[in-house]
Amino acid sequence: MSQLNAPGAYFRVSPFQFRAARAILQLGVREVARETGMSPTTVNKLEKSAENVTVGAVDKVVSFYLRRGISFIQNGVQFVDPQGTFDIFNEDSPEEDLPGHFVDPKETGGSGG
């Protein structure tokens, strides 16, 4: 299984993985945008399609999540907290199992976060 270990050395990170990472950390879109120096619109683009977003923007967001204990694994995310326990969520996991207020914008007709 491939794993993202460092910025710039990764497989394609899916919109699900970006949404799941944010939900696990219980952050809003604006918080991620502020912490990465990007606009909320760019963060939303990553969480919807990840198309038309620069590699630099992807790298900033990936680096942000890596520093907070998130690893992107093939088709999912893994979170290791400071106590060393971890959870793995993948695209087959029920989204209601994610902590925080994870809402899929496709289901609500909104933009999420």
Description:
There is one protein chain. The protein has one domain (15-95): 434 Repressor (Amino-terminal Domain). Mean pLDDT is 74; it is low at 1-8 and 100-113. The chain is built from 5 helices and 3 strands, in the order ααααβββα. It has a 3-stranded antiparallel sheet with strand order 1-2-3. It is globular and about 35 Å long. Helices cover 39% and strands 12% of the residues.
Write the topology of this structure:
Elements: H1 15-24, H2 29-36, H3 40-48, H4 55-67, E1 70-73, E2 76-80, E3 86-90, H5 105-108
Antiparallel strand pairs: 1-2, 2-3
Helix pairs in contact: 1-3, 2-3
List keywords for this structure.
3-stranded antiparallel beta sheet, 3 strands, alpha+beta, 434 Repressor (Amino-terminal Domain), 113 residues, disordered C terminus
| Helix and strand composition category | alpha+beta
The Rg value, from CA coordinates, equals 13 Å
Largest sheet: 3 strands, antiparallel
Number of domains: 1
What's the CATH class, please? Mainly Alpha
Biggest sheet: strand arrangement: 1-2-3
CATH superfamily: lambda repressor-like DNA-binding domains
Named at the architecture level, the CATH assignment is Orthogonal Bundle
Average pLDDT for all residues: 74
How would you spell out the order of helices and strands?
A: HHHHEEEH
Look up the CATH topology: 434 Repressor (Amino-terminal Domain)
Question: What is the global morphology?
Answer: globular
Tell me roughly what share of residues is in helical segments.
Answer: 25-40%
Strand content: 5-15%
Residue ranges: pLDDT <50 for 5 or more in a row? 1-8, 100-113
Extended strand count: 3
> Number of helical segments?
5
**End-to-end distance, in Å?**
30 Å
